[in-house]
Amino acid sequence: MADSFGELEASSLFCPRCKRATPVRRKLLLVLPSGNKYDYTCSVCGTQVGGKTDSNSEDFRRLATTAQTSLSPTPGRPVSRQRS
Fold first, then answer.
1. Distance between CA atoms of 17 and 52, rounded to whole angstroms?
2. For residues 44 and 18, is the Cβ–Cβ distance under 8 A?
């Protein structure tokens, strides 16, 4: 069966502190090789009400490539070593 919904986003979830469904805020917690991990918090009281890990690894690949280029030394330039 084809995935007809794609990636779903929660707009409101039940908050155990407010005792009702409330709008939520999504916060990015981690960028993982398998996808991004998000946390959903109640927009009224700030209680954590859920979480999600998507399967999009594009951010991880982009960050890994950027980190490799920024850490590689410039050709022809000696690598400076700091002494502690």
1. 20
2. yes
Alpha carbon 38 to chain centroid, angstroms: 5
Q: Which of 13, 72, 65, 3 is nearest to 43 (CA)?
A: 13
pTM for this prediction: 0.63
- Token pair for 12: 């409101």
Q: Which residue has the tokens 């502690």?
A: 84
* Span 35-59, pLDDT tens digits: 889 999 999 999 999 998 888 777 7
Q: Which amino acid is at 56?
A: N
DSSP letters spanning the chain:
---SS-S---SEEEETTTTEEEEEEEEEEEEETTEEEEEEEETTT--EEEEEE----HHHHHHHHHHHHHHSPPTTSPPP----
